[in-house]
Prior knowledge:
With 346 residues, this protein is an alpha+beta fold.
Amino acid sequence: MRQPDSIINQDTLTTLEKALGADRLQRDVELAPFTTFKIGGPADLFYEAKTADELYHALLVAREIDLPFFLLGVGANILIGDGGFRGLVIRNAAQHMEAWTEKSQVWAESGAIVYPDLIDLAVSNGLSGIEHYVGIPSTVGGALWQNLHFLSPPPERKRTMFIEEVVLEADILTEEGDRRTVDVDYFEFGYDQSILHHRRDVVLSATFQLEPGDEARMREIMAANLDWRSKRHPPLDTEPSAGSIFKKIEGIGAGRLIDECGLKGTRIGGAEVTHRHANIMINRGGARAADVQALIAHVQKVVKRETGYRLEPEIAFIGAFDPPPTTEPIRVPKEDGMISAEERAA
Ligand SMILES: Cc1cc2nc3c(=O)[nH]c(=O)nc-3n(C[C@H](O)[C@H](O)[C@H](O)COP(=O)(O)OP(=O)(O)OC[C@H]3O[C@@H](n4cnc5c(N)ncnc54)[C@H](O)[C@@H]3O)c2cc1C
């Protein structure tokens, strides 16, 4: 549902049109198509930055005139409210990339797509270190924000690997308005964590330090990881989602708790806890952000009551949210023949 009071006045519009180009600034753009959940109302203003310099410029202007803004990657870790976003959404489409084989490095603007674009560039240049993250929807900026992670290669799959292991440095615009190069330590990476969660810094581009690798072996790891994912995660094209909804609980597993509480297949409106993976909610078609919020609250309530654990959402909530519906959840049965991630793990 549209929030009635846009905060954009004529002065703001004139300043932005002058700075970014009247033909590049769009009004009332539906955000759902720009997210993997396919949920979210309109942005008052929408601008696509096609280079790191355009991104830098747009951020400076928005900050100068004190206009609320949101920087959007591929929208794979967020839920945008049905009321949309009051202010400017900057979609990061700055995707220039280069491979520097003599130094075993790849450099990319922060809107570059990790898979397939950046991984293909690295692997086809014989550079190893980011092939592990195949199949995960993400821009380079989003990957640094969340410290992208996945399991180490088969057959052992003995540990979780993090993108921080290959980050050398990044060009950022700091919260204070300085443009500077920072090294990996600056980011204070953790599990699903980086300094970007706590400071309004923005990554403009990043350099990754990789190692010479055997292309055939890298392609083998990529195929194995894609196969692993396809057997455990709902396919994004037919079952849109934002990946894991709740944060990991060390040694326990958020998904395991949800599964043990019998919550798979629980549905409110168009949002459903998928039978494929207990920690993933999918958009069954026409889901509203309010449905997802109500489903999150329901799962939290049941898990707390049954196990004592408090589940915390991993995704970010962006924009204006309507009150959740008061409809009771229903439960849909599992399709015949489906093997869930939890059954595979067991
Ligand atoms: C099906 C599916 C599977 C997934 N599997 C995994 C997985 O295995 N491992 C994993 O780690 N994650 C996984 N995720 C989560 C998601 O892919 C990552 O969190 C990803 O890094 C999000 O990137 P994005 O570009 O979509 O960021 P968005 O969702 O668009 O944005 C997320 C946040 O990052 C901020 N941001 C974006 N760009 C920048 C920038 N340049 N500078 C500063 N802040 C920025 C945004 O403002 C926002 O606050 C999965 C998601 C889905 C949908």
